[in-house]
């Protein structure tokens, strides 16, 4: 049992915090909410140069070959400043899908360019019910023909579709037997994207695939075996979002402590009142436990084959806990925290995406119930 | 980062677990444990002596005192397995509190006299701290100890003294300088509780059990060498905890066993339509929430032990573990009772587990109160952990 960070993780934590605090302050984050991409070319290039995009890409594909638990430390820091943008879609779910099931050619072609920041990836999975079960794929089909497949269907909640160079599309196979994954360049004829307005600055799109002609080399993994891959990718997604939220929760707590130490009423800092202190203690408890849950999940994903239950527990707990942390923080900030100009609300709005992405508490609660055979 | 125990630690867990399962009378799944403060006391002592022979009772003690200098993680495993298996025999007062205190503050004579019986599992100690007017504000305690030249004279009352009715010795705090600031006039003493002038009066708790006592000292004479450490330094001596883990892992470990038992019950109990209770979505969700609470308490307990192993003082984590663990105990007891429907109010054999969880619910009400209430723990987190100003120390310019 070693609950501390490794030397590499400590370095990653310190260097990323320093970079993000300097380069991605709240006015930048706010500006990126209305930006079409959600990140500037300059910052994107910087994070590519620092090796963040290729952090989990093996050295043979030009990356630095670190593990997901290292990445989770970086995600905590991104959550801390509230940086969204196409990083997660590309460097987490995009990279993991290719690593898990991509062909050698696909990996050689795509991974090095992800690492250098030239290629962005977006996962097109969800459809109209918005769940994370295989039954979600109800209208996207891939019909096999002599050259490859024809893809049809409409995807919803596709993150960063506008900035992506490639989509990873989940489609049902002919006769509805299983799911297949395809690597589809965005400039393929027959793709239309349409923005879905979200409240946290996430770039979320509806993507229509009409009569898309796919070559046989565009499938990722075996035909009909895509769900196995996706379940693993969703684990990385859920664990990664837990890490973002535990980092963000720590930031919300810091902001709140600064405020209640400074704000005076009845001639004293409001942080001296026990009624306020007990709220603060509750935030500390929720934040501490969130960090433990999310780090354990990322460690298990990295080092074992039986991480499912810990990922479910992490996403179920942290999604709820971070919501509670934001709620308490608003209560302690009083009226000022409720204003558009005060930065707290930016993290509160982003929380709405983070807690829903890759399954909300309710979804993961049901998984826990299944895994414990309840 | 590594969220698993070492091979050596896991081997120890397996060794301990198989030893425990051999010791348990009858089937493990039916084993309900015993009440060590009542008729299970003798059985508890028997197990304690066996633990002593195995070297596990004082595994945390340094080697020079006959211990193993066991790592914090090994201690956590010991506590986790003992709690999960509802095993009696651990010695919170002697081995965990007084022993380490004597090692640091006792004279050679005191160590020679008092440590071996603790290490051999032969003696039951109890702790006299709280008084009728000194609970959360313990340093305001009043029990009077006067220096009479060749002995100390003790007068006053201790209360909520667990195990005093089973103990042969008591360690306690007394006021030795009434004029000094409250923390600086307290000293640490030992006394044979069988002294004719010490009266132990039972306090029956609302579960109907006898755990607590009132201990009344009336002109009790104790020898000069009953003082531990320096005079008037008792407050600080009492804070000595040395190398024992303080993770509170016993709460989630106990809760996990109870969780499994309750799950078995609701799987095997049908509602009026013949559907197993486990399929009730509300019950199912309640159990998932409980699983998360158990995991939360366990993760924080491990974090406490980890920080201790790094030589850090886990003040905030210790409080978090205590809050989560004790609230968890209350939650489990409530769930174990509520699922039984109308049977949940019965204490006879027609109730699930003969009304055990009902009784537990009454017992664990005390958990968020003893050893620092939830409110005190939150104050500690806020002031020591988060750096918020203490309300009672604040100088306010009133107009």
Structural summary, described in words:
With 374 residues, chain A is an alpha+beta fold. Chain A folds into three domains: 7-88 and 96-118, Acyl-CoA dehydrogenase/oxidase, N-terminal domain (Butyryl-Coa Dehydrogenase, subunit A, domain 1), CATH 1.10.540; 122-225, Butyryl-CoA Dehydrogenase, subunit A, domain 2; 227-371, Butyryl-CoA Dehydrogenase, subunit A, domain 3. Chain A has eleven helices and ten strands. Chain A has helices at 7-23, 26-34, 41-49, 68-81, 87-101, 104-115, 226-262, 274-303, 308-333, 344-356, 361-371; strands at residues 121-124, 141-144, 148-159, 166-173, 179-185, 191-196, 204-215, 219-220, 264-265, 268-269. By secondary structure, chain B is α+β, with helices and mostly antiparallel strands. Chain B has three domains: 7-90, Acyl-CoA dehydrogenase/oxidase, N-terminal domain (Butyryl-Coa Dehydrogenase, subunit A, domain 1, Orthogonal Bundle), CATH 1.10.540; 125-238, Butyryl-CoA Dehydrogenase, subunit A, domain 2; 250-388, Butyryl-CoA Dehydrogenase, subunit A, domain 3 (Up-down Bundle). Chain B has helices at 7-23, 41-54, 72-84, 92-105, 108-119, 234-238, 250-267, 281-309, 315-338, 356-363, 374-385, and strands at 125-128, 144-147, 151-159, 169-175, 186-192, 198-204, 210-223, 227-228. In chain B, strands 1-4-5-8 form a four-stranded mixed β-sheet. Chain B has a four-stranded antiparallel β-sheet with strand order 2-3-7-6, with no helix packed on it. The N and C termini of chain B lie far apart (54 Å). At the A-B interface, α7, β10, α8, α9 and α11 of A face α8, α9 and α11 of B.
